[in-house]
Design goal:
heterodimer; A: 104 residues; alpha+beta; Alpha-Beta Plaits; 3 helices; 4 strands; extended; B: 393 residues; alpha/beta; Rossmann fold; 2 domains; 6-stranded mixed beta sheet; 15 strands; 18% strand; globular
């Protein structure tokens, strides 16, 4: 993407490109752990969706369907806020997941 | 109606603010600028201004309110001094970086420690790299005139940079002077209607103010900010001329006093320049060819114009009412000495720090400086580049 010269920028750091934060893949910040969605435990309370700081909870057809890892930073707030005793969002060490993936 | 009024510097700033009637005034009182804030609060209580007056819990918050209000699209003003300006410090950079045309009246005062409430330029000199335009006033009339012009300069579309107007704490802020107060409507007309750029309250357009910039954009935004203050000289000049045409008192970047055939020159800002004029008069009556250059605009620094005015002098003394510990000279001196570097013909130049913490500077002290300049001009030798005036050794 071509970046503007200083003469082309809007005055005073004003950003007129509303919604352009989708270009910022905050999932690249993730290190160590990420939430895994366990669908059978989900009570569709939407707490995870409400608390997620990066809008990384995937909602399809009005239901929580998992996590968008392009934006998930692995902060774990969703898992803490998930109300059921058997949580629908379980934090898993990322290297375990990678190991599982490479074993397949 | 245009009238003569007896006002002190703080009242002069408040009076100009009342006439301009900004949308939001957010300020926290601190000596010696308290009376500015007090008078504005009284104007609000008496229904003489329609703008909002906000007194938050600190100067940091006062500048934060100014930034919020200016981002929303308002014309905004504040006043402070010394520790108050120091507490605003991080917000000063934000106001300038966001290109918000906020105007501040500063009753210049020393900084702690040791604690002291009297006048020197340590506070605003400490903010000299914050990106604000800085105007300094010799007396109450200049403080009044500068504050009116400050709005025009700050709000010009090519500038959009905050402006502070300095007036010496106590010496000007608390001294009465008979000043020309212009007609309310004429002042309003001169300042004009404020047209905000990208106001947040305009909900027809979605925008973000102050998003994070990483290594890929910060430098470009800073360069844009520098362009704003570098556009200021022609605006300052035009506004000063227009002010002169309209109200009869023209302003430039500096005032030259008896400089025509001068060989020696004293450079000094603000109230001390008044005392220096008396000293120059006395020295002139003794046949000495000496003049005074009184800078009004410190940021952006009019380096070329000042260098042109000084290059033919034999010897120049730059007097600073602040110190820059560990630096090669105080702020005004380093600017001027650097400005003269490219000229093959240039004067011998020395620096004297004076008046810290409100220490008096009298006619006799300027005469002392003049005799040192005479010796330098005669011998071509400088014994002491950076010294002090009226300090117990």
């Amino acid at each position: 993407m071509k970046k503007e010269s200083w003469k082309e920028l809007t005055i005073g750091t004003i950003n007129l490109d509303a919604g352009n934060s989708v270009k910022n893949l905050t999932g690249t910040w993730r290190s160590g752990k990420s939430p895994q969605f366990v669908e059978e435990n989900c009570i569709q309370c939407f707490f995870c969706w409400l608390y997620c700081p990066h809008f990384a909870v995937r909602v399809e057809g009005g239901e929580v369907k998992g996590i968008n890892y392009d934006y998930c930073t692995g902060c774990g707030i969703c898992s803490v806020e998930c109300p059921p005793k058997d949580k629908a969002l379980v934090m898993v060490k990322e290297e375990v997941k990678l190991a599982e993936r490479s074993a397949k | 109606m245009k009238t003569l009024k007896t006002l002190n510097g703080n009242q002069a700033i408040a009076e100009a603010t009342r006439q301009i009637d900004p949308d939001v005034i957010a300020a926290y009182p601190i000596t010696p600028s308290t009376a500015i804030v007090e008078s504005i609060a009284q104007f609000k209580a008496d229904g003489l201004i329609s703008g909002e007056f906000v007194c938050p819990e600190s100067e940091h918050s006062a500048m934060s309110v100014c930034i919020g209000a200016a981002s929303a699209g308002g014309r905004v003003m504040t006043a402070t001094a010394s520790q108050g300006l120091a507490l605003m410090w991080e917000m000063l950079y934000i106001a300038a970086g966001l290109r918000l045309p906020i105007v501040a009246g500063i009753a210049n005062r020393s900084l702690s420690a040791p604690i002291n409430i009297h006048g020197d330029h340590s506070d605003t000199m400490g903010a000299r790299d914050s990106g604000w335009i800085q105007l300094y006033s010799e007396g109450c009339q200049e403080a009044y005139d500068n504050l009116i012009q400050a709005f025009r300069i700050a709000e010009h579309l090519d500038v959009r940079t905050p402006v502070l107007v300095g007036l010496d704490g106590f010496i000007i802020s608390h001294s009465m002077e008979v000043i020309q107060v212009e007609d309310d409507d004429e002042v309003k007309k001169f300042v004009g209607e404020y047209k905000p750029v990208y106001p947040l309250l305009d909900t027809s357009r979605k925008l973000t103010v102050g998003p994070i910039d990483f290594t890929d954009y910060y430098f470009e935004h800073k360069r844009g900010q520098i362009e704003g203050i570098e556009n200021a000289p022609r605006v300052i000049e035009a506004v000063g001329k227009e002010f002169g045409q309209k109200f009869g008192r023209e302003y430039g970047f500096f005032e030259e006093y008896k400089m025509n055939d001068a060989e020696l020159c004293i450079v000094v800002m603000s109230s001390a320049a008044g005392t220096c004029k008396d000293a120059v008069d006395e020295l002139r009556s003794e046949g000495k060819r000496i003049g005074l250059l009184k800078p009004r605009v410190f940021r952006p620094f009019p380096h070329q114009k000042i260098a042109e005015a000084l290059k033919k002098m034999k010897a120049v003394a730059v007097l600073d009412r602040s110190s820059s510990p560990g630096a090669f000279g105080a702020p005004l001196f380093t600017e001027i000495r650097s400005a003269l570097y490219d000229y093959s013909q240039r004067p011998k130049i020395v620096n004297y720090v004076y008046g810290l913490g409100g220490r008096d500077i009298m006619v006799e002290h300027f005469k002392e400086v003049a005799s040192k300049l005479e010796r330098i001009a005669e011998t071509g030798k400088i014994e002491e580049i950076c010294g002090y005036i009226n300090l117990r050794e």
